[in-house]
Structure prediction request, 183 residues.
Amino acid sequence: MIAIMQQPLLALFEGARSIDLCAGEALFLAGQTVERMFLVRSGRVRLQRHTAHGTMLILQNAGPGTVLAEASAYSPTYHCDAVCAGIARVAAVRRCAFLAALRDRPAEAEAWAAMLARSVQAARVRAEIRSLPRVAERLDAWLAEGNALPGKGQRQELAAELGVTREALYRELSRRRTGREGP
Prediction:
């Protein structure tokens, strides 16, 4: 979701309870019952899933102004984990109150629908990037979306976002630094 959220969506979280999170702390886990909707106020929260093979995939790096796991508004359980990437603060509202507000407030409902459409578009871009066969192609496509390479301590998260092993990403970054041609 775009970090600069439309005012009508922010109104859905007015009066929300604040939750402070530490690095590595889970806000919710896959399989838990959806009771609340969350908005990142500060910091970053990752939505992640573990594949059957044990690989972690980052589905979203949510920053300030982002509603977490937006599809959960219509699901009985979460389908991913929300884990804090550092210190973060989120706003929490009860799901039933959130959905009632959407029914009663057309401007908020329209802003919500537009945000869901943008989220679908972003998910399609991530799926397209992950479908590329080579690490170099995935990295090029990810960079072409306006992303910048993270610092050394965060490159493992980039590997998870691209759906590649960290070793494969490190080899590709090394190849680019030294100017060697790929396979």
